[in-house]
Amino acid sequence: MITHIVLFKLQEPSRETAEEIHDRLMALPALIPEIRHFEVGINIVESARAYDVALYSRFDSLETLRTYQDHPRHRDVATFIQSVTSGTVAADYES
Question: Global pTM?
């Protein structure tokens, strides 16, 4: 199993933008069968080191993670997210 975690920092933090990212990401499991587990959360504790939105997802293998990342619907969502974020960090590990 591969765990894929991504944190997103918004350019201009707002609840509306965070919810838009949440909703667009949460539409993906119905479209991409390789997703085994998918959670998206909006940060609730303000801090200088905090990111605004978190994605926690799991896949059967690196191959299925790559299939997810290359899926056209994922790429559409990623393009939107890149347009409203100032930074992201990610970690992928075997679990």
Answer: 0.95
